[in-house]
Amino acid sequence: MKGNLYLAIDQGGQSSRVGVYTEVGELICQFSAPCATSHHQIENSAYPHIEQDGNEILHGIRQCLDKVCKQLGEAVNNIKAASFAGQGSSLLCWNSKTGEPLTPVLSWQDIRGEPYLQQISLTHRQAQQITGLRVSPHYGASKIRWCLDNYESVKKALNENSLFIGPIVSFIFWHLLGQKNLVDPGHAQRTLLWNLHRNEWDERLLELFQIPKSVLPECRFHNSHFGSLKLGAHSIPFFASARDQGASLFVAGMPESSACYVNIGTGAFIQRVSNILHAPEGLLVSPLWIPQHNRSENLNASPTCFVNELVEKSWYAWEATVNGAASAIPYIQEQTGLDVTPGEIELALQLNPEHNVYFLNAIGGLSAPYWRTDLHAQFAADLSSQEKIFAWIESVIFQITVNIALMKKAGEINYIRISGGFSKSDQVCQRLADISGLDVYRSDNADATLQGAACMATGLSANWQPVFQQEIFSPETNTDLNDRFLIWQNAMQKWLTP
Question: How far is CA 109 from CA 13, 76, 216, 324, in A?
């Protein structure tokens, strides 16, 4: 096998994937390993513990890497660079000397740190001015504080100067790239401790949460040299790292500012590229591409050249989240008694209900643009099991639509690009087109995050031009859908009003 190859790791909420691509974006091989999420209801606590196993995740990635090595044989030597994309708000603590996990991975869905946020003097506006984020227990600061206060192993390691805390990417890098605690700006921001303007840990926030800076990762630019991965006898430099949702935007190269990007998987994520740090109320601002600006130094390290000067600039994403997408499946199954498969979802979406069918979706917390963690999910009265599935899917579509309307404040949006598991449903895509009034573009690529990470590994090479089969869903008149959207909005307003 001739030509340069690039390896990407995508560590997601449901699985870890490793893929190898050519410089033009053609997939050579891909392997995946599942990672389970556990939900523990804690006695005398309103907050269930939602966790994963760090060693299980690491073992799964290593298994995938071994399969890549076996599949490629001598061609593994053609891999010129690697990259990582991962869950932004999931984190864990580990021993800085042995690498042993001291805690489970606290999932991004876990909000056990909520009581800490009620005790500190930090407003949403203050947090957004510093970090680009709102105060939320989904982010790392309150989870870190919880770990420091509640795990004896963490307290002991802190006293012995052997404690590291960071997102999953930092734990994986420690094990795969040389026992250094490193992170990129996108993952760092999701701790709610990162100063987005100065690109450094914010001393005031560290003091507010009483978190020692020494336990946190060193942050490097998105296109930095994070270390080298040993694959057999071959050493592969890691030249890129990003949050999964940020990486997904680079699936075809530099993302387009006139498009809105929607990825519906465990959660639904809505993004729009901008170089403006101040977004409308209810939206977040996230680091998308914060590069090392010393061009000559970076070119000495990077395997390829920059596409153009746009890549040398800092870019951000206006961002919104809808937590209760696939993460709501266990709840929906409990409420309906049905196995919520893609087939069952398609059957439910064929319904044409003649009464009020809606779902107030607070699974994992009601996110953008409402940001409430004190509400409990509610269905409209007297719904059948299939109607509950129908209402759940439409609740995700409706909340996405509300956030897209806010993103238009950065200028007109010409179309939506959709990806993720739910995008495989024609009915989901068509409903989103109908309710938003925008064309919805769906490619045949279900691995946008993995492929986007690989593009970043190339240094955003001008040669990256993957071929996609693309479908376009154009808006159609759908009076029933518009009526249900209005009913949902009215129910939401009553629900949100104290």
Answer: 10, 37, 21, 10
